[in-house]
Design brief:
Length: 228
């Protein structure tokens, strides 16, 4: 007699990995159910009446859900971009572009080789990220969207007045202002990425947002050390 299969996907696994794991496990459950389909025993059916089940964790604060194997396969494969995914990519491109404006001002103004190396590292990291997000938007039809955003309202963005002051600064005064503005800028990017991780649905966007959180958290720590 076949027994019901219940698989618990732990909440600690990042959603992108959990999605892939859910799909793999669900396919395995389907295969097992097919092998035992001839028994006809009602005890082999899940609570939904559709065969073996998969227990999938809910979002933070939400209970786990019991899905049929078919439902688990469908859920695992559904990473259709939603409005939060598009919003993140569109806004983060502009956010990164201002970071490049800030880093471009370092050469010839900074008194610190450490600040210069840091700015070069930030620039080298964010340029390809802009390309990746632009490519994602194009591949998902986002380049044809006409939605407008107030870029100046994004968290962490330097104002025109702050940029003017930074352009006029030199030496240690420049370094102090640059680090202060860039830390705030990074904190804003982390806020945006965290929102995308909570509200988005696309695995690729999730991976990009996760990279932003990890990389910019490390860079914030480095900048704070340079300020001491």
């Amino acid at each position: 007699m076949a027994q019901e299969v219940a698989v618990l996907i732990r909440c600690q696994i990042p959603r992108a990995r959990a999605t892939a794991l859910a799909a793999t496990l669900a396919v395995a459950v389907l295969a097992l159910g097919a092998c035992d389909s001839g028994s006809g025993d009602k005890e082999t059916k899940s609570a939904t009446g559709k065969g073996p089940s998969v227990v999938a964790p809910g979002k933070p604060g939400e209970p786990a859900r019991t899905l049929s194997a078919e439902e688990a396969v469908k859920a695992a494969g559904d990473d259709t971009p939603n409005s939060a995914d598009f919003r993140y990519a569109e806004l983060m491109i502009e956010h990164h572009k201002q970071a490049l404006v800030l880093t471009a001002l370092v050469s010839g103004r900074s008194a610190s080789t450490s600040v210069e190396r840091l700015s070069e590292r930030i620039s080298a990291g964010q340029k390809p990220e802009i390309g990746a997000m632009e490519g994602w938007l194009k591949n998902n039809g986002g380049d044809k969207r006409t939605e407008s955003h107030d870029h100046s309202a994004m968290p962490g963005m330097a104002t025109e007045g702050q940029l003017k002051k930074l352009r006029a600064a030199r030496g240690k005064a420049f370094d102090a202002l640059f680090l202060d503005l860039m830390i705030t800028h990074h904190q804003g990017a982390i806020t945006m990425a965290t929102e995308a991780l909570a509200d988005g649905n696309n695995v690729t966007v999730e991976e990009m947002a996760t990279d932003v959180v990890a990389q910019q958290t490390v860079e914030i720590d480095r900048m704070r050390k340079l300020m001491t």
